[in-house]
Amino acid sequence: FLARYSFGLRYEIFSKFRETEGFRLYATDFPASMPARQIDISGEILASRFCLCPSGTGWGMRVFHVLVLGCVPVLTQHDGKHPAVAQAFEPEVLDWSQFAVVVRRDQIDQLPALLKAVDIDAKREAIRRAWSQTVWADALPPGLRAQLHGADAFETMMRALAVRVGLEKPAGRNATVFSR
């Protein structure tokens, strides 16, 4: 199953880099890859600089989970043949290249070098400015809701729709935040 899931990309990354220094990869659907101890996924994300968010079957929450916890998403959904997969509110409002690393399928062999070349501080600063735009404020408890800065996912979605119908101009490559 793992070798076919997500067009074989997860398995390819797992098999190529599971022993690579600085990489910690778990295939939760492949028990042999899991350590004997229980894993705290949120703790692993918090302790990581980069978090792999590969393609799967359908839309997933992984990328939003890692954004909220401040980890730079590594998106491997671009096959290099077709247009890149648009992420949430892209391109109308968010420029995901500011806070994520987009890796084409033909670049997978170069993944360690690509990640070493990333300005991690700039990516994390962009995450701090953008993450709240991917969270639905009404889904949060009042205490956490009060901590959100700027627009939430609802406001961002409304802005994306306004851009699509021509009521607003696209945010452009350097705009990842708009205020309420």
UniProtKB/TrEMBL annotation:
<comment type="similarity">
    <text>Belongs to the glycosyltransferase 47 family.</text>
</comment>
<feature type="domain" description="Exostosin GT47">
    <location>
        <begin position="33"/>
        <end position="117"/>
    </location>
</feature>
<dbReference type="Pfam" id="PF03016">
    <property type="entry name" value="Exostosin_GT47"/>
</dbReference>
<protein>
    <recommendedName>
        <fullName>Exostosin GT47 domain-containing protein</fullName>
    </recommendedName>
</protein>
<dbReference type="GO" id="GO:0016757">
    <property type="term" value="F:glycosyltransferase activity"/>
</dbReference>
<dbReference type="InterPro" id="IPR004263">
    <property type="entry name" value="Exostosin"/>
</dbReference>
<dbReference type="InterPro" id="IPR040911">
    <property type="entry name" value="Exostosin_GT47"/>
</dbReference>
